[in-house]
């Protein structure tokens, strides 16, 4: 539960009580409580939700247009009120206890998923919402007279005021099984299991007073900043296939803060009107194996943020203040929380390619949500046949080792964010399959909600790690490497490349190998599809992995933002300082970048690499003919100045690959089929030319497209 939620809930809902002179008491005109259950999660637990409304106007309803369907019930409002101070929920402790009674209810039937035997149901009719006794930091749902008086609890909710709707809200909470119902089911390990979401709205009879404006000293208007403050509660929302050959859809809770000095736009839209000004949330899961290899094993579709309640979670000192933004902006010093169910809701998960990771901009017109007709009105409401689609999808096979500490990562992408160093972080979690419960058990490696690890996961791994700009108009990628001495004159080379904020992405990765003998070449990406793995080639002193160019296949398996790919091989040479070359996928200025690393040979595959063998003046290219990239190798009997050029059939210089001194022995350069301006050249015949002061060599090459 977020740090400030306990005190906020205690103060937020109260019956009429004595209030300080500066406080205003708002009587509740009407209210509504809404449940959104996870159908696949219920089925896996042997449960089913059945709703019943009282036969009164506005009593209850079941909305089936959304996925998952909603069960919504009116709240009895006789004598109910809540209190505000200067346009904010009263931060003081309310002296009285408050309860809210729903008009109608539902039953959660239960059967043993292994035997089909009936188990005690959860019966919630005319139930009460109890926020005054926060046992284990949770809102309790009470069923008077039931065999299980408190079957469900709410965690990770956002508590605040919705000035647009003139209401107090407990929004986006995670609905979980209570320890009491789990015990009644004879399955105590189910306590805390996520089964859906919870929202409560209490509309005031009188207009809410406006929140206070920040003082001029705070509102300087120069720094827009969003911080990932808390990341916690990784959990499952559904699965496909039978364990251990299926997959699971995951999500985690996040809390963001505004430590800047301007409010941050935070509006996804009204019920169906799509608006672009809001944050985006990315989640990913990593596994570090027992032998120290870090791999990414899953990412989510991008989560579209919406509506902030401006909580007090970020207030850590008496001098700190939250200035609410009224729902459409994250106010100065304020916090906003999305629970596990909320961050895994397909109603708000969209394709990552629609969002620019560096600029954090999104066009709603004609987007995934705005299908037919294209008019910026929402046409998609989350319905999917798969229980895992769009969520953080992970294969059972990648979760097989319960002894490992897995690492889940969260990122906020915000337009015009002035500080990208604090919008990303990660937490450790242990994940184990419980066959008796037919589900995964998630145990945070470090208790508590506050995030313990800033920055991306890749920054913590390997012998070397560094962040590199991709191009002048683009974001960054990380390269980390680790070399292990296997003994017997063999070394294992492991490289991890992580796209932090590059919209153009990468299509190739290459390192020099010199005269080393290379074996056990491998590649790993998180999508579990071997048909789109990057192909590798070892030739002419280097090793390259690549996928199709953008012009050939715009949907090729490029390395996109918040993705990490691994490249690996064994070699019979120890590591030396060198450079790796990465090819850029999407068009723009420049086609490749060099990144310092370690490899079995000096240099890089895009500039001469040092060899040691003596030999005559010579030139070669491999592969030839070639698609995309070939490696031009030349041999010198001594160190000297040479030029290596690419010429077309008319003799015109297309590109100079090297011009300057080169060492004795064999050197290798890569040509990616582009001219000096970075443009793709046409298919056809080209000539590679090696020139020194006294002699030259020419070799014909054939470029295929």
Shape descriptor: elongated
Strand content: over 45%
Distance between the termini: 56 Å
* Main beta-sheet strand count, sense and barrel state: 8 strands, antiparallel, barrel
Any idea what the radius of gyration is? 30 Å
Residue share in helices? under 10%
Strand order of the largest sheet: 2-5-8-11-12-13-15-16
Count the DSSP helices. 4
Number of domains: 4
Unreliable stretches (pLDDT < 50, length at least 5) are 1-21, 53-66, 92-97, 606-615
Overall pLDDT score: 85
Number of E-state strands? 48
Structural class: mainly beta
What is the element layout, followed by pairings?
Blueprint: H1 5-12, E1 14-15, E2 23-37, H2 39-44, E3 47-53, E4 60-63, E5 70-76, E6 80-85, E7 88-89, E8 99-102, E9 104-111, E10 118-125, E11 128-130, E12 139-142, E13 152-155, E14 158-162, E15 167-177, H3 179-184, E16 194-204, E17 227-240, E18 247-257, E19 264-265, E20 280-288, E21 294-299, E22 302-304, E23 329-330, E24 335-338, H4 340-343, E25 349-350, E26 392-395, E27 406-413, E28 424-434, E29 439-444, E30 453-454, E31 464-469, E32 476-487, E33 490-499, E34 506-512, E35 518-524, E36 535-539, E37 542-546, E38 564-571, E39 576-584, E40 592-599, E41 618-622, E42 626-627, E43 630-636, E44 640-647, E45 653-662, E46 665-671, E47 684-691, E48 696-704
Parallel strand pairs: 42-48
Antiparallel strand pairs: 1-6, 2-5, 2-6, 2-16, 3-9, 4-5, 5-8, 6-7, 8-11, 9-10, 11-12, 12-13, 13-15, 14-15, 15-16, 17-18, 18-24, 18-26, 19-23, 20-21, 20-22, 20-27, 22-25, 27-28, 28-29, 28-30, 31-32, 32-33, 33-38, 34-37, 34-39, 35-38, 36-37, 39-40, 41-43, 43-46, 44-45, 44-47, 47-48
């Amino acid at each position: 539960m977020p740090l400030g939620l306990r005190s906020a809930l205690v103060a937020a809902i109260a019956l009429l009580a004595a209030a300080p002179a500066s406080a205003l008491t708002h009587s509740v005109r009407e209210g509504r409580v809404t449940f959104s259950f996870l159908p696949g999660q219920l089925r896996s637990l042997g449960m089913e939700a059945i709703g019943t409304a009282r036969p009164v106007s506005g009593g209850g309803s079941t909305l089936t247009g959304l996925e998952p369907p909603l069960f919504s019930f009116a709240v009895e409002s006789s004598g109910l009120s809540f209190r505000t101070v200067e346009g904010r929920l009263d931060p003081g402790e309310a002296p009285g206890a408050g309860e809210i009674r729903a008009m109608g209810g539902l039953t959660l039937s239960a059967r043993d998923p292994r035997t089909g035997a009936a188990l005690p149901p959860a019966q919630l009719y005319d139930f009460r919402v109890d926020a005054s006794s926060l046992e284990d930091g949770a809102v309790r749902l009470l069923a008077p007279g039931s065999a299980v008086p408190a079957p469900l609890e709410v965690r990770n909710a956002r508590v605040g005021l919705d000035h647009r709707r003139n209401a107090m809200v407990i929004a986006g909470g995670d609905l979980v099984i209570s320890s009491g119902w789990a015990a009644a089911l004879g399955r105590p390990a189910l306590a805390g299991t996520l089964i859906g979401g919870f929202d409560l709205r209490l509309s005031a009879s009188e207009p809410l007073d406006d929140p206070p404006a920040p003082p001029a000293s705070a509102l300087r208007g120069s720094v827009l900043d969003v911080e990932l403050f808390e990341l916690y509660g990784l959990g499952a929302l559904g699965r496909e296939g039978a364990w251990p050959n299926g997959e699971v859809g995951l999500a985690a809770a996040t809390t963001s803060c505004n430590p800047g000095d301007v409010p941050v736009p935070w509006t996804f839209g009204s019920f169906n009107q799509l608006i672009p000004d809001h944050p985006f949330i990315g989640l990913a899961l990593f596994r570090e194996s027992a032998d120290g290899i870090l791999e990414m094993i899953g990412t989510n579709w991008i989560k579209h943020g919406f509506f902030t309640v401006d909580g007090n979670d970020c207030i850590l000192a008496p001098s700190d203040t939250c200035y609410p933004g009224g729902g459409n902006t994250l106010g100065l010093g304020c916090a906003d929380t999305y629970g596990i169910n909320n961050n895994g809701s397909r109603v708000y998960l969209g394709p990552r390619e629609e969002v620019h990771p560096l600029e954090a901009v999104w066009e709603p017109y004609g987007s995934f949500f705005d299908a037919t007709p294209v008019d910026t009105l929402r046409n998609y409401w989350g319905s999917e046949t798969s229980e895992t689609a769009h969520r953080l999808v992970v294969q059972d096979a990648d979760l097989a080792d319960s002894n490992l500490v897995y690492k889940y990562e969260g990122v906020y992408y915000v337009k015009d964010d002035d500080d990208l160093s604090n919008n990303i972080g990660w937490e450790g979690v242990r994940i184990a399959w419980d066959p008796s419960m037919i589900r995964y058990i998630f145990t945070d490696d470090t208790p508590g909600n506050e995030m313990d690890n800033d920055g991306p996961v890749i920054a913590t791994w390997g012998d070397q790690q560094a962040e590199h700009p991709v191009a002048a108009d683009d974001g960054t990628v990380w390269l980390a490497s680790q070399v292990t001495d296997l003994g017997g004159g063999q070394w294992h080379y492991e490289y991890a490349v992580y796209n932090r904020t590059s919209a153009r992405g990468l299509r190739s990765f290459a390192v020099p190998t010199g005269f080393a003998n290379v074996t056990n070449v491998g590649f790993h990406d998180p999508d579990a599809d071997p048909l789109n793995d990057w192909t590798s080639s070892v030739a002419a002193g280097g090793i390259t992995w690549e996928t199709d160019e953008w012009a050939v296949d715009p949907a090729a398996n490029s390395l996109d933002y918040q993705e990490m790919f691994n490249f690996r091989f064994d070699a019979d040479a120890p590591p030396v300082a060198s450079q790796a070359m990465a090819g850029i996928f999407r068009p723009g200025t420049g086609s490749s970048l060099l990144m310092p690393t370690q490899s079995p040979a000096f240099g890089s595959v895009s500039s001469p690499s040092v060899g040691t063998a003596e030999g005559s003046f010579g030139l070669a290219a491999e592969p030839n003919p070639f698609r995309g990239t070939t490696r031009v190798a030349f041999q010198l009997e001594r160190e000297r100045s040479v030029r290596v050029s690419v010429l077309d059939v008319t003799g015109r210089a297309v590109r100079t690959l090297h011009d300057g001194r080169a060492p004795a022995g064999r050197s290798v350069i890569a040509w990616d089929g582009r001219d000096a301006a970075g443009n793709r050249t046409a298919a056809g015949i080209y000539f590679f030319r090696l020139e020194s002061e006294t002699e030259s060599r020419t070799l014909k090459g054939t470029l295929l497209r």
